[in-house]
Specification:
Length: 830
RNA sequence: GCGGACGUGGCGGAAUCGGUAGACGCUGCCGACUUAAAAUCGGCUUCCAUCGGAGUACGGGUUCGAGUCCCGUCGUCCGCACCA
């Protein structure tokens, strides 16, 4: 028996699949369609284990779907714009484009070595003009439809690097690279009107049945719809202040009005009064981290202004500037009802404001509210004029209709979701196709001038945006009036690139972003697989972009991803030397640091990360064990949504199984005779593994395949054994495709196993004629009986009572009651 | 603080409907083959123990029967966060 040579077989079959274009999807196929997609990678340099796990899962599903006769679209590409390329440019002096393209070449070769069934004919990279040019066209379509606008917005500005920083690049208020104190700067930036779609994005979640509940909930909270009343208070200085509340029913319990420190009213007062200015400045101090906010004291500053109650003009509420009111949410101003809101109560107690009960818990109707715990539960309105006696919901409706009738307020829905700011003051991104003209304002670049290509001759040696500094690139004539004008030098957020790549995969004509008819044949993506870290932003933006395209009549698809699966991470033990250095796995052997011979502290199993040195590079592992062993390991043991702990022993176990498969299938010979039990097991396994793969429960499929493999090994030669070995080979083919192809040939088959059909199940083989029945006495298992399936209740009961073990357990007591579940169990209660 | 998920052997985990807990894999141990080793094959591997008993984080409950359902407690992880 020859040992299976994985490396040789890997290379051979990969080139065969390539040459035959086995996995290229046919747009004109009459077969049922399956669009299987994993989140495309950022070309950071090398493939990591997380990629391997992600793409292996999608690959098994894609290959399985092909075997059951689907036309499968399973493409791959590169999310190739982004800051790491610019960082590399600054650190190593390489051009971001060269760096990115070299990484793509490396990673593509690495992916190929894993034998993924990908349609490489549709490969795309977002950093190439033949992708981002079409993105510019789509951006202009949205612009024409009024879904793009420009407004002032503040950014984190690094005054040394002269660059805008993302929030995660600001560490303790300083730029991560320069260490300079970061300033807030107002810049005019482009926004997409995602908030116009807030309602449909929220309501659409309900239809996404094949999404994890967790992700739907996260998006729901992120969109954050609140319904309430927006209304105006008249101020004592003749001005007005507009507030939003979700509890308009409690309006008669109001005892103060509070505005944010950057609210226009506060700003106006601060401009005149140094004391106010000092307070406003104080509000802006302090961090915005969770812990800081939680412990931060509620501070208020009494402006001396008063607000007139909209219904009872005799009531005048003091107006405070308060540090807990956010300008970004609602109207930047609130009214405080201390009896029924905890934060308002804390504030009222601190500044000695009245606390008036307006909702009764049923026990207490006294207008004077005592205690330090606000009542937020249900009840009847009290001390509230015409609202008295109503429940909370009725009172809300009554007050909103009165406000609308009298013209001082309106029922409103407020969202937490903000419009999507897409401007980035960066080089390595999609240029925003707009020209700024002094006379005409912002003018879209005419479609026939697209793509607006990034200039290649840029330098990162000097700080600032290279596009802005470039001597000629931005200077152009206004397309509208012809006078000298300048290009927009901001580029698009890379989340825009990933908001439509799945559409471009489905259809990629040269002259437009996609062909509507072809794209609609494939979309939506049937199964999308990726990390949970994209649960909100990427998935929400892609949903928005798709709906926006539908809105402007470009594509009739509401939701881009019908099914979503978020896979767990690949983890590894961590190791520390006795002097506290992190050690990488190869530096450690049997708990000893090989270099020093000293013992090592084994830490917790954690996500693979460079900082903790617990990463395992897939490439040498593939070199050593072959692609199939790595793929098999990725599917084994851990449920795919949970973390997978990488282990040396585990990969060796997988390698052994690949070898064992090879032996089982190649040593198997045609023979005579039946083995009904094995035949039944094989059919059951076909059915169950199919279900497991469809449900992405690969760990269960793996366990079943081990069981079938062991049963075949133990069985005596027979016709059924021969058939079972053949079945086993087909079942493992989506998971370990290289050894499967090799064994397919060795068994004398023509063609590729990749093109073979999934085995059919004979329903007759799924029924058992014998069953094992559990026999319990008082709920405790005492015996098991093997009986014909469908044995009558009376017979079951009699057989159970006749069991020696039951008789012993009864200790002479008479059964009081006997529960019989046919074909399952008998429970004797004594 | 709010919201959510989870808690099963030495480890990863299985048990789809309330019906035989621990499938399958890893580790470990014993044995076969071998001059020897590797590879491979066979057996054992929840705990305590003599019969037998206990056991799915802990404490209660419902039920003939609970890993699974309900209530409470503890713990771990994730998301959001002064949201009006």
């Amino acid at each position: 028996m020859t040992r299976y040579n994985a490396l040789k077989a890997d290379a051979h079959w990969q080139s065969v699949w390539d040459e035959r274009r086995t996995f290229a999807a046919d747009d004109h196929s009459a077969k049922p369609r399956s669009y299987v997609l994993e989140m495309f990678p950022y070309p950071s340099g090398r493939i990591h284990m997380g990629h391997v796990r992600n793409y292996t899962m999608g690959d098994v599903l894609a290959r399985y779907r092909r075997m059951i006769g689907h036309e499968v679209l399973h493409p791959m590409g590169w999310d190739a714009f982004g800051m790491p390329a610019e960082n590399a440019a600054m650190e190593k002096g390489v051009h971001p484009g060269s760096w990115t393209r070299a990484n793509i070449a490396t990673m593509k070769a690495q992916l190929k070595r894993l034998g993924f069934a990908l349609d490489w004919t549709r490969e795309l990279a977002t950093c190439e003009p033949d992708y981002y040019g079409h993105e510019q066209a789509l951006f202009l379509d949205l612009f024409a439809a009024g879904l793009v606008y420009r407004k002032e917005s503040s950014v984190n500005w690094d005054p040394v690097d002269m660059t805008v920083l993302a929030n995660e690049q600001v560490i303790d208020g300083r730029g991560w690279r320069s260490g300079a104190l970061v300033e807030k700067r107002k810049l005019s930036q482009w926004f997409l009107r995602i908030t116009d779609f807030a309602d449909e994005l929220l309501d659409g979640l309900a239809e996404l049945k094949d999404w994890p509940d967790k992700v739907r909930l996260m998006q729901e909270n992120w969109i954050g719809r609140s319904q309430g009343l927006q209304f105006r208070f008249r101020l004592s200085d003749a001005g007005e202040v507009e507030v939003f509340t979700t509890r308009p029913d409690t309006i008669f319990g109001a005892s103060f009005v509070a505005v944010a420190a950057d609210h226009p009213i506060a700003q106006a007062l601060a401009a005149r009064d140094a004391e106010v200015a000092a307070f406003v400045a104080r509000c802006k101090q302090g961090g915005t981290t969770a812990a800081e906010l939680e412990t931060q004291e509620k501070l208020g500053f009494d402006t001396g202004l008063t607000a007139q109650h909209p219904i009872d003009p005799a009531v005048r509420l003091p107006v405070y500037i308060a540090n807990f009111v956010l300008m970004e949410y609602g109207t930047g101003a609130v009214f405080g009802v201390p009896a029924h809101d905890q934060r308002d109560l804390d504030f009222a107690r601190k500044y000695d404001l009245p606390v008036r009960r307006v909702v009764s818990d049923g026990a207490d109707e006294d207008p004077v509210f005592v205690g330090d715990e606000a009542y937020t539960g249900p009840g009847a309105l009290v001390n509230s004029h015409f609202l008295d006696g109503m429940d909370v919901a009725d009172a809300k409706r009554a007050i909103i209709s009165r406000a609308e009738g009298e013209g001082w307020g309106t029922g409103t829905t407020v969202f937490r979701l903000r419009d999507w700011g897409v401007s980035r003051q960066r080089y390595w991104g999609t240029p925003i196709p707009i020209i700024h003209c002094a006379a005409c304002g912002p003018v879209p670049v005419p479609n026939d001038q697209l793509p607006i290509v990034l200039p290649e001759d840029v330098s990162f040696a000097v700080p600032g945006n290279p596009l802005d500094r470039h001597p000629t690139w931005k200077h152009v004539a206004c397309p509208s009036c012809g006078v000298d004008a300048v290009r927009e030098t901001d580029t698009l957020d890379t989340f825009v690139d990933s908001s439509w790549y799945f559409i471009r995969f489905a259809s990629q004509p040269d002259d437009r972003p996609f062909d509507r008819t072809v794209a609609e044949e494939w979309l939506p993506v049937g199964q999308y697989i990726g990390g949970v870290e994209h649960a909100i932003l990427h998935l929400l933006y892609a949903r928005f972009w798709t709906r926006a395209l539908r809105h402007i009549g470009k594509l009739d698809v509401a939701e881009p991803f019908a099914g979503l699966f978020t896979q767990g991470m690949v983890t590894h033990e961590t190791y520390k030397s006795d002097d506290g250095r992190w050690l990488s796995p190869p530096e450690v052997e049997n708990g000893i640091e090989t270099a020093t011979g000293r013992p090592v502290t084994v830490g917790r199993v954690e996500k693979m990360s460079k900082s903790k040195k617990n990463t395992v590079d897939p490439e040498p592992i593939v070199d050593q064990y072959g692609a199939d062993a790595v793929r098999w390991f990725m599917l084994s043991d851990s449920p795919p949504e949970r973390d997978l702990p990488w282990s040396e022993a585990g990969i060796e176990g997988s390698w052994r199984f690949v070898q064992r498969l090879w032996r089982i299938v190649t040593a198997d010979k045609a023979a005579e005779g039946d083995d009904l039990a094995l035949r039944k097991l094989a059919h059951r396994t076909v059915r169950d593994v199919a279900g497991d793969i469809e449900g992405l429960q690969f760990n269960k499929a793996v366990a079943r395949l081990y069981t079938l493999a062991s049963a075949i090994e133990k069985a005596a030669p027979s016709h059924d054994r021969h058939a079972a070995a053949h079945t086993l080979l087909l079942l493992v083919a989506p998971m370990v495709p290289h050894v499967a192809e090799e064994a397919w040939v060795a068994a004398g088959h023509d063609g590729l196993i990749a093109d073979a059909a999934w085995p059919t199940v004979d329903p007759a083989m799924l029924v058992d004629d014998e069953v094992t029945v559990a026999v319990q006495v008082n709920g405790k298992l005492r015996d098991t009986l093997t009986l014909a399936k469908g044995t009558a209740r009376e017979e079951l009961e009699a057989a159970a009572l006749a069991s020696d073990k039951v008789v012993r357990a009864l200790e002479g007591k008479a059964p009081r009651k006997v529960i019989v579940v046919p074909d399952r169990l008998v429970n004797i209660v004594a």
